[in-house]
Structures are given as structure tokens and as C-alpha cells.
Design goal:
Chain lengths: 791, 271
């Protein structure tokens, strides 16, 4: 019933239009390269009529008949103003010029327009723009989008060199990571040292930590929406960089008689080229590469096609021991169609695949696994009037999961061929949401998403005695695998289990004055796909598994409240947010769970719950020679799992325990100072509470070995993590007449050489027989140098 | 170069740990060596200690230790040697029979049951350089046939005379059912870890145990945690529960395990 109320509210609002209204619509682009600008602001001066551009640079603004001054603005670009007489619907395209002709660097910028962000109900979102990230100090000079977002409040990693990221106490698999709408299942290269996003090919990044718009679904923690550049439609251009670990080259150019453009980007590491020269590692190989492709074609002013793709690969060979390669491949064909000046649509056909292969030579085993999905999406934006914008659409997604195929890797191998059951599923969704300006001060964002998930057959399902895949052994006080009773075969196309969930999303903002507002939001979301990992860190070998008979979908409810203020003429902004999030049906692993090559994962897991809450503070200085921000997060993230159907008290005795990504305190301080046209200096400082870990609380001798004993899960913590990074950027020629522009970036990561523990292991010393704690730290002080160019 | 850059630093640090209450440890391994009568058996009792207090004498004397064959009803009473060990010389091992262990100590009663598992013969033992992890170092290879018609679990124990510790491996036939199984043991050239590669003349004691699935699960966890405890890519460390329970006071269970196995015992001298 509560949803019905919303809908009635919405439609009565639609009918309340009075005086004659006209629309202006069009596209906003960068004048130098023709890239569409996302989130640019269009407004009528001295009125409340305004709009922002969507993911494709399209805007639509509706206002009563009259004469106005139209202002188009975008951070880092010169504003354009134009007098207009609004007496009919009209189409107007604009091109903006950058204020400073720098290299295309990414920077975490202030909200595109403070004027709108104060007013708009959308909260808990962090945006990154293709402008200046490169000046932020990075490990080995490798610019990294995923590492950059970790400098924002509410976002952490799981220690140096670990894959993925964690948002508001959520797990890495609870982030929906989209590259041009295609799902990226593994965001890392080199087992987490670098991310798969080539910063030079990226236009725009948005991270929703909460208040997730209804058009996104499928993950319960966050959405990272990464958009690739379209390619320069004005002239041919080359961009590149040479770093210690990898090099990049990007070519872009207009095509089809300026009706379109393309971009092709390549990035590859080359350390492996030198490895044969070093005796110790001459048979080893460790490398990665990736390719980004994007092209678009304008059929006419109302129709445009986009084709984008990504292909990335990691190769890791340790002579005679392990050969491993893995990577993502994605493709997306899109059709933008503008029905009229108020109705915009996009139809996408998306393909996405992640696969890995591992060969263990010493046991002559060859292992393959993959996840493939196809997705068809149709999204529409209807700009009803100045006060109401509607987004609605449908989506259908098929999954094909191959959790593992084992082959002998040689003729003499003792390994038997084994293929784990392939799993299939279909996920459909429909949504509608409205952004509704009720009054000058009050705005709502309300939406409803319905998602349905069907686990499809084509496999046997195991039935267990008493329907218990996991059984509590009360004698030994442990959880054990249940006893299989029989098997049921489901044919392809037959449904094994179906789920349906309504996911309401609600946001509200109230403007206190010109420079301050409060916002609140509620998001419910559902996740049908789970990443199986019983290790502290996500590894490339972790397997995704769909919900079904024994695994329930994760459901999260998040409430957030925020206060936003601009002061000193927008030179500073303050954002305060607090959130409370619960996740039902979070998978947890019984002690001693064995996930590798397991066809019956349900015998290793129980359905638990998780909760997280916290306070986030972000204070930014947006203007002047010195810019930067201070981010502070105070938070808690924990989980609990009862025995349920399996009996017994549950995992960890059914008590709440810290998730591995619980960080009580997390502080990031980032600053950039422009000395003059040639030199710029940047610095980061990071401090985090140590990662929760489980340390021994005793030992005993068994079979001549000292065996550690443990108490509760994650009761201890590594020591606090902190480090300081600095970098300097030198741009020798700022001469605008020369096409070739280059810059040098000198960096030092971990300046004071802090030995941050990536882990602490407890071992018995082979020489003395005594037990000891060994700290493993990954990055000490690392200097780097990178050369970037643009032609 | 990447390795130079990525080479992680390791150092030993001081860590303050919680100390759990000491708990009884039962190391009751009824191992029937193939080709012997298996009448001599020893059970060891000790106490657990704080993690860094290895080497303390924690042997437990004064306990009453019996093993009962639940199929035949035969009872074997172990004699307290007053050094933590309890022995018998009249034990009768029967493959497939189930045995129950009873330990009575300090007012608490502990019990455990286990079935005596058989083990297949070792086909051959060879040495090689090409195989193993490192192509330039010697390793010893053990081959044995896995029976096809049943699930089998094995424990391998390698020990080179002079070493402080034996080396264990848990093996299941999950991926190799019915085939000739190959296991190898190679030592690294690692001075930091006091490890030197095998050389001609080195002698390795080799034991191949046939074990129960439950004991396999216990040893799999123990081995994983012993060799990679704290490694972020290993599964989370957790208490390892054996099969020695305290029926009247379940929280007062004992550490360790009561196993009953058949074992191949041999040794190999590198040529």
C-alpha cells in the first residue's frame, strides 16, 4: 500500500501543470574534443529552472514562456551564457571550453555545481572527473581509479595489494562495478595491485555509496559506474604515458565524415621483458594488458549508436609451479534515441565475461572457470516539466556460470577429468523513479524497482537428509557437511527456484538556505549473485554462485541522513553523512570450509546477516592554488550467523563479529598545490584502524608440531595503517601553440617508509622450534617517475 | 624486476596475545604398522599453553586411559609411564573395527571413537630433479594405487633425520580416484628458514597412513593453518576441533585426536 501512495502522489503532481510551458533540449560537449559532458548544469539565471546533463550529455529543461538568460556551466570549464526567448520548444547544443588547458587528468572534483547539489535529493554519491587524478601520488606512479575512490569517506580497501574495495562496511562482491554498463567481475590486475581501469580512457566515474537510483540493481552495497570516453570528434589525437610498471597509448579520431569518433586505448606492463635477464626469475612471467575501444556514430540528430568494448588479461607464471591467467571481456552496443525534447531513450545490448585458468604443473592439474552474462536494457528519461523528471526502464540479464572444469595437464597426470555443474540463471527487472521538486526548498526522489530472479535447470540438485546441507554435530561442537539423500534433475529452461523483490528507493532534500541543505534517503536492494570466498582477501580464483534452493538472495536496507554546506563563496564544502545498513542472508562459511572444486557449496555455508553504521565527514577546498580535502569515517561493520536449519548456535557461537573490512577510524588527507605554471605538488596522508584478524590464544603439541588455538573470529586487529605519499608534476612547455604537450610526474609512495602489516602470520621457527609472529609488509618507500604526453 | 619491486618484507614482531585457559591435549594415535602385530601402542597426554610458551613440560600423569574395541568388547588399559605417555603391549588391531577411547583425568571424563582404516601399499619410491617445485633440486616421489570403489583419505609424513619437525600432507582421492597417486617431498634452498635441499646420502623417513574422513578434515585444517596461518589468501584461522569430547561437560572438551590407522613405514636414501 505504501508504494501505491507514492504513485498516486506522483500522478496527481503530473496533472498539476498550469501556464504554457516550453522546453529547451540538447547536448553539451567539450569544444576541444567533442566529448559529451556528463552532469553539466543548464539553468535559467535568477529562476529556479535548471537541469543537468545525463550519461550521454543530453539535457531537457522546461519553463514558462518568457525571456531568460541561459547559463551552462561545468567544473573546470568556462561558463556560457546566452539570452533566449522561450516561446516554442527548441533544440540547443553547446560546446564548452576548458578553463586551463592541462592534460586530461582525472581529479576528484567538487560536485559539478554546488548550486544544484545542495538542492538535489541525490546523496551519498562521489564523482570523479576526467581532469586531474594523475597528480595524486600513486604506487609506482600507476594512476588508479579504484585506489583514488578509497580516499573518500566510507570507502576502504582490504590492505595493500588486495583486490576490490569496500563501501560502508560492505563486502567487495556487494559492489556493482560497471564499465560502460557492462559488469566487471574482477576489478584488479596483479592480484589487486592495480585496477583494470585505464585512467586515460575513462571519462567519468560515479560511486553511489547509498541512495542508489532505481535504475541500478543487483548489488547491495554500492554502484561504481565508470564511463569510457567517446573519442575525439574534432581531430586526431594521441595520449600516452610511460611509467615504471606499464605504458599506455590512446589514439582517438573523428570518423564517418565527422559523424562519429573512435577511441582505442592500450595499456601493458613490461616488467616481464626484463625478467629473463635476472637469474632468479628468468623462467617466471608476470604481466598484464588491457584494451579499451569505443566508437560512436551519429545517424541523425535524434539517433546515435555507440559501441564499446574492454578486454583485459593477467598472466602469471612461476616456472614449473603455477601458470595462471585471468581477465574480463566486455562489449556493449547502444542506441540513443531522442523521441522528442522531453523523452530520451537508450537501448543497450551488453556482454560481459570473466574467466580464469590455472595450471598447477607440480600436480599436473589444469583448471578453468568462467562467468558469462548477456544483458538487454532499455532506459528512458522523461523530462515532464521543470519540477519532475522520470526515469524508467526494463532489463533482462542471463547468467551462465562455469564454476570449474578440471583436466589433467599432461599424459602422465593422475588427475581425472571433472566438470562441476554449470549453473544458469535469469534476472529481470523493471523500475520507475521520479525526481520531484515540490517547492523551492523541498525535493523528493522516489522510485520503485522490481527484480525477479530464476535459477534455471540443466543440472542435478542434491537433496539432503532432513533438508540439511549443513548439520551441527553437537558432540564435537562443529558444523559438518550434510548427508546427501538423492538428486533431482532439472532440465534446461526449467526453474529450480524463483525469487521476486520490490525495492523501494526514497530520497528527500530540504534546502535550509542558499548554501546549506539536509537530505535523507532509504534504499532497499537485492543481490542474487554471491562471490564465494572464505579468505580474508578476494582472489582471482574466487567463484561466483547464484541464489537458489539453498542460497537466499541478499537483501539490504540502508538509511542515510546528511548535511551539506558551502561556505566562503563555494570555496569550501562540508558534507556530513551518517548511515545505518543491514544485509540479510549474507553467506558465511563454516569453520574449515572447503570451497575449491566443490560441487556442493551449500554444504560449506550458512545464511547469516550483516550490519554496518557510521559517520562520514568530507571537508573540501575547491578553489585556489591549494585544493584538497579531509575525509574522516567513523564506522562499524559486523556480521552474525545463526545455525538455523542446520541447528546449533551458529558460526562464532552465533555472536556478532567484525567483518574483515571493519575500520573504526579512517582518515584521508589529500592536497594539491600549484606553485606556478610548471610545477605542481601533491600529497596524501592516510590513517586507518588495523584490519580485524584472528590471532592465536594458545598452542599445544600434536604430532611434534605446535598447533595454535583460537577463540572468536576477528577479535584482534593488525596495527594501525598509515602512510604519507608525495608527488611533483613538472610541465615544461605550457606553450599553447605546440601540439605536443608532455609532463613528468615524480612521486614517492610511503615517504617515511612505514612498514604497514599486510598480514601477521604465526609460525614455528624451524631453527629454534619457538613460535613467533611474522609481519609481512608489502610496500616500503617507493620512488617513481612517469612521463605523460598528449599530441 | 617486478619481483624486486614487489618483494615483500618479512620481520618478526612482538604481539600481545590473549591467553586461553589450559586444556587437556590427547594425542591418541593407534597406528598399525603394516607387517607388524601392532600390539605396542602409546597415547600421550599434555596441556595446552600460551602461544609463545612452547617447550614447557606440560605432560599429564595420573590419568586413566582405556581403549575398547566396540565390535569385540575387548578392553585395553594403558599404563601410566609418569612422563605423559600411556602404553600397552597387548593391543589387537582389526581393520574396520570401531574403537572407543576413554580418558579420565582431574574429575573430567573424555571419550572418542574411531574406526581403524586400512591403507594401500606403496608401489614405488623414486628420486628426481626435474619434478617438484624446483627443477634443480632433488625430491623424493611416492607412488601408490588408490582403490577406485571407495572414497579414500591419506596422511603423508616425511621426516629427515636431524630436522626439528616432520612434514605432513593430507591427500584425498577427490580428483584422482582409482588412479596411481603421486606425492613428492622436496626441500627448498632457504637459509632463512633453516632449510637445505636434499643431497645424496640424505635419509627420509616416509609414512603413509590410511585415515578416516573426519580425521582428514581435522588434519587438512591443521596443516593449512600450520603452514599458512595468517596469510590473507588462506582461509580464516579457526579453532580446530578434534574428536575427543567431554559428554558431561561439553565445553571442557580436549584438544588433539583419537585416530586408528594402518600405516606404511619405510625410508628412502638419496643416491
Amino acid at each position: 500500500m505504501k508504494h501505491l501512495g507514492l504513485v498516486i502522489f506522483l500522478f496527481t503532481s503530473l496533472w498539476c501543470q498550469a501556464q504554457e510551458q516550453f522546453s529547451i533540449s540538447g547536448t553539451i560537449k567539450d569544444i576541444t574534443n567533442g566529448e559529451t559532458l556528463l552532469g553539466a548544469t543548464v539553468y535559467l539565471k535568477d529562476t529556479n529552472y535548471g537541469a543537468t546533463t545525463n550519461e550521454y550529455g543530453f539535457f531537457s529543461l522546461t519553463a514558462p514562456e518568457g525571456t531568460y538568460t541561459l547559463v551552462i556551466s561545468y567544473v573546470g570549464f568556462k561558463s556560457v551564457t546566452q539570452e533566449i526567448t522561450l516561446n516554442k520548444d527548441q533544440k540547443l547544443d553547446f560546446e564548452l571550453e576548458e578553463t586551463a588547458t592541462s592534460l586530461d587528468e582525472i581529479v576528484i572534483v567538487a560536485e559539478e555545481s554546488e548550486r544544484v547539489s545542495i538542492k538535489k535529493p541525490q546523496m551519498s554519491v562521489a564523482k570523479l572527473n576526467a581532469n586531474t587524478i594523475k597528480e595524486m601520488p600513486a604506487v609506482l606512479g600507476e594512476v588508479d581509479v579504484v585506489k583514488s575512490i578509497q580516499l573518500l569517506p566510507g570507502v576502504t580497501n582490504n590492505g595493500e595489494g588486495s583486490a576490490g574495495f569496500h563501501v560502508r562496511g560492505g563486502a567487495a562482491d556487494q559492489n556493482l562495478v560497471l564499465l560502460d554498463e557492462a559488469i566487471i567481475y574482477n576489478t584488479s590486475h596483479f592480484f589487486g595491485f592495480f585496477s583494470v581501469f585505464n585512467a586515460d580512457a575513462i571519462k567519468n566515474i560515479k560511486l553511489y555509496k547509498g541512495d542508489i537510483p532505481a535504475k541500478y540493481g543487483g548489488r547491495v552495497s554500492s554502484v561504481l559506474d565508470v564511463r569510457q570516453k567517446d573519442g575525439n570528434s574534432k581531430q586526431f589525437g594521441l595520449t600516452g604515458g610511460v611509467g615504471l610498471i606499464s605504458s599506455r597509448l590512446i589514439a582517438e579520431s573523428p570518423i564517418f565524415n565527422d559523424k562519429g569518433s573512435f577511441l582505442i586505448a592500450g595499456r601493458a606492463s613490461y616488467a616481464h621483458l626484463f625478467m629473463p635477464l635476472i637469474e632468479d626469475v628468468k623462467d617466471d612471467k608476470i604481466s598484464f594488458y588491457d584494451l579499451n575501444l569505443k566508437t560512436n556514430y551519429e545517424i541523425n540528430e535524434n539517433n546515435r549508436l555507440y559501441l564499446s568494448g574492454y578486454f583485459g588479461r593477467d598472466i602469471f607464471n612461476l616456472s614449473k609451479i603455477i601458470e595462471n591467467n585471468y581477465g574480463n571481456a566486455t562489449g556493449n552496443l547502444r542506441w540513443n534515441h531522442v523521441f522528442n525534447d522531453k523523452l530520451f531513450s537508450n537501448l543497450s545490448f551488453i556482454y560481459s565475461k570473466y574467466d580464469y585458468n590455472i595450471i598447477l604443473d607440480f600436480i599436473e592439474l589444469d583448471w578453468n572457470a568462467d562467468i558469462t552474462n548477456f544483458n538487454v536494457k532499455y532506459d528512458l528519461g522523461y523530462y515532464v516539466n521543470n519540477d519532475i523528471t522520470l526515469d524508467f526502464g526494463v532489463s533482462g540479464l542471463t547468467y551462465n556460470l562455469n564454476p570449474g572444469e578440471v583436466r589433467p595437464s599432461s599424459e602422465t597426470s593422475p588427475i581425472n577429468y571433472l566438470k562441476l555443474d554449470e549453473k544458469r540463471a535469469f534476472e529481470g527487472a523493471a523500475y520507475i523513479s521520479a525526481e520531484h521538486q515540490i517547492s523551492d526548498k523541498l525535493a523528493f526522489n522516489y522510485g520503485l524497482r522490481y527484480s525477479a530472479f530464476t535459477r534455471l535447470g540443466g543440472q542435478n540438485m542434491t537433496n539432503y537428509v532432513n533438508n540439511q546441507p549443513v548439520v551441527y554435530n553437537s558432540d564435537l561442537g562443529i558444523y559438518e557437511r550434510g548427508e546427501a539423500e538423492s538428486e533431482t534433475y532439472y532440465s534446461k529452461g526449467e526453474s529450480i527456484k524463483t525469487f521476486g523483490n520490490l525495492e523501494p528507493r526514497l530520497g528527500v532534500s530540504y534546502q535550509l538556505n542558499e548554501d546549506a541543505s539536509v537530505k535523507a534517503s532509504y534504499t532497499k536492494s537485492t543481490q542474487y549473485l554471491h562471490l564465494l570466498s572464505n579468505t580474508a582477501s578476494v582472489t582471482p580464483l574466487d567463484v561466483w554462485t547464484p541464489s537458489g534452493q539453498y542460497i537466499k538472495p541478499q537483501i539490504s536496507n540502508q538509511f542515510a541522513l546528511g548535511y551539506y554546506k558551502n561556505f566562503k563563496d563555494n570555496a569550501y564544502t562540508l558534507e556530513l553523512e551518517t548511515y545505518y545498513k543491514t544485509v540479510d542472508n549474507r553467506i558465511d562459511y563454516i569453520d574449515g570450509s572447503d570451497l575449491i572444486g566443490n560441487n556442493n557449496i551449500e554444504t560449506e555455508i550458512l545464511n547469516g546477516e550483516a550490519r554496518a553504521y557510521g559517520l562520514e565527514v568530507l571537508l573540501r577546498k575547491n578553489k585556489g592554488d591549494f585544493t584538497g580535502w579531509l575525509a574522516y569515517t567513523l564506522s562499524k561493520s559486523e556480521q552474525r550467523t545463526f545455525g538455523g536449519n542446520a541447528g546449533g548456535p551458529g558460526i562464532n557461537n552465533g555472536d556478532w563479529y567484525n567483518t574483515p573490512y571493519d575500520r573504526t577510524h579512517d582518515i584521508s588527507l589529500t592536497g594539491s598545490y600549484k606553485l606556478n605554471d610548471k610545477w605542481r605538488f601533491s600529497s596524501n596522508f592516510i590513517f586507518q584502524t588495523g584490519r580485524p584478524v584472528t590471532y592465536p590464544n594458545g598452542q599445544y603439541t600434536y604430532e611434534d608440531l605446535s598447533v595454535a588455538t583460537y577463540s572468536s573470529r576477528n577479535e584482534d586487529r593488525l596495527s594501525a595503517y598509515h602512510r604519507l605519499d608525495v608527488s611533483a608534476t613538472y610541465s615544461p612547455n605550457k606553450d599553447n601553440d605546440k601540439r605536443w604537450k608532455g609532463e613528468w610526474v615524480f612521486g614517492i609512495y610511503n615517504l617515511y617508509n612505514r612498514r604497514n602489516a599486510a598480514s601477521v602470520s604465526f609460525n614455528q621457527n624451524n631453527q629454534t622450534g619457538l613460535n613467533e609472529a611474522t609481519r609481512i609488509s608489502i610496500f616500503g618507500m617507493i620512488p617513481s617517475i612517469t612521463y605523460n604526453f598528449k599530441f | 624486476m617486478t619481483f624486486v619491486v614487489f618483494a615483500s618484507c618479512e620481520d618478526v614482531i612482538d604481539v600481545d596475545l590473549d591467553n586461553a585457559e589450559p586444556r587437556l591435549v590427547i594425542e591418541a594415535s593407534l597406528d598399525w604398522e603394516k607387517g607388524t602385530a601392532g600390539n605396542e601402542q602409546t597415547i600421550n597426554l599434555s596441556m595446552s599453553t600460551p602461544y609463545f610458551n612452547t617447550g614447557e613440560d606440560t605432560s599429564v600423569s595420573g590419568a586413566i586411559v582405556t581403549v575398547t574395541n566396540t565390535n569385540s568388547g575387548a578392553i585395553f588399559t594403558f599404563n601410566d609411564q609418569n612422563d605423559g605417555s600411556y602404553t600397552v603391549d597387548n593391543f589387537v588391531p582389526v581393520i574396520g573395527d570401531t574403537y572407543r577411547l576413554d580418558v579420565s583425568y582431574a574429575g573430567e571424563n573424555y571419550e572418542a571413537t574411531e574406526t581403524l582404516m586400512s591403507v594401500t601399499d606403496i608401489n614405488s619410491i623414486t628420486q628426481s630433479i626435474e619434478g617438484g617445485f624446483d627443477d634443480e633440486l632433488l625430491e623424493v616421489n611416492v607412488y601408490f594405487d588408490d582403490p577406485a570403489d571407495e572414497e579414500n583419505f591419506y596422511l603423508m609424513r616425511y621426516y629427515e633425520a636431524g630436522d626439528l619437525f616432520p612434514y605432513f600432507e593430507d591427500i584425498s582421492d577427490e580428483f584422482v580416484n582409482g588412479n596411481e597417486v603421486h606425492d613428492f617431498f622436496e626441500k627448498e634452498d632457504d637459509e632463512d628458514n633453516n632449510e637445505a635441499p636434499f643431497e645424496p646420502g640424505d635419509v627420509v623417513d616416509i609414512k603413509l597412513y590410511g585415515i578416516s574422513e573426519q580425521y582428514y578434515n581435522y588434519m587438512r585444517l591443521l596443516i593449512e593453518q600450520y603452514y599458512s596461518g595468517g596469510n590473507p589468501f588462506s582461509s580464516n584461522s579457526a579453532q580446530i576441533r578434534g574428536n575427543c569430547i567431554n559428554p558431561t561437560n561439553p565445553d571442557q572438551y580436549a584438544f588433539g585426536y583419537f585416530r586408528a590407522t594402518q600405516v606404511n613405514v619405510t625410508s628412502y636414501t638419496f643416491q
